[in-house]
C-alpha cells in the first residue's frame, strides 16, 4: 500500500550551542535513550540518526549533532563540521536555545548560518522550566525573533516533556509528503556496539572531574554472547590523554572505574534486555584529539 499521498516523512536536524538539551529533546521524542546526555558541554560528538514513526502521520528522521562551538583541536573541528554538514541535507532545521535576553556571539554565528538555509527553521526555546515568570518568555521570544526569520517559535522543556508534543506537531506541519524511509519498528541506525560505547562514556562523564571528560573516548574491544549462558561478555577500553587522568579514572583501589562500570552495566542491560558481564580497561593515548589516525580509529570519520 502506498502511503505517499497521506504520509509525511523527512529529515530534521537538531542544532544548537553545546549543552542546550539537544540530546535530551531527541531522547524524549523517541521515547528511549539513544544519545548520551550530561551537564557537561560537547557530549555528543557524532551525528546520531534516530527515527520517530507515527503510523497515522508519517516518519521523522532526526539528526542529533554536536554543539556548534569554536573548535580548539581536530576533534572540535570534526564536531563543528558534522553539525554544519547536516544543514545541507534536511527538510527542517530545529534550533534549540536557552531562555535568555542576551544573544551571544555563538548564537549570532548560528543565526548567520541559518539565514542562508533553504528549508523551514523552527526555534525551540528549551528549559522553560527554569523560567520563574512565564511572561518573561514573551520577552525572550521577541529577542530571538530579531536575529533570524523563524517559521515557528516554540517554548518547551525537554527535561520535563513540556510542549514536546507541540514540537513534533510543528515538524510534521513542515515535512514534505512521501513514503517512510525506514520500517516502523526502526529506532536508530546506530550499531549496538556504538551505543554501548556511548553509554560507558556517558557514565564516565557523570562520574569524573571537569577536565578529564573531554579527553576520553571509549572503544568496544569485544562484545559476544557467552556459550550456553544468557549472558553477554563486553570488554571496553576508556582512552584518556594523560597518565594523571588514568589515575583519576581508575580511582583509589579501582573505586571510580568500578562505579563507572556498574552504572554502565545497569543501563546496557536495559538496552540489550540481557545480563551483561562488563570489563573496563583504561589506556593513555597522548593528544589523541589532535591525531587524524586516532580520531578515525575511535569512530570520528571525516564526512564527504
Structural summary, described in words:
- This protein is α/β, with parallel strands linked by helices.
- It is built from 9 helices and 9 strands.
- It has helices at 22-30, 74-85, 105-115, 136-145, 164-174, 192-207, 243-250, 255-272, 292-297; strands at 8-16, 48-54, 58-64, 92-97, 121-125, 152-155, 217-225, 231-240, 275-284.
- It has a 6-stranded mixed beta sheet, with helices on both faces.
- The longest helix is centred in the last third of the chain and has 18 residues, at 255-272.
- The chain is globular and about 55 Å long.
Assign a percent range to the helix content: 25-40%
Could you spell the SSE succession in H and E letters? EHEEHEHEHEHHEEHHEH
Question: Low-confidence segments, ≥5 residues, pLDDT <50?
Answer: 41-45
Tally of DSSP helical segments: 9
Oligomer state equals: single chain
Q: Give the structural class.
A: alpha/beta
Strand order of the largest sheet: 2-3-1-4-5-6
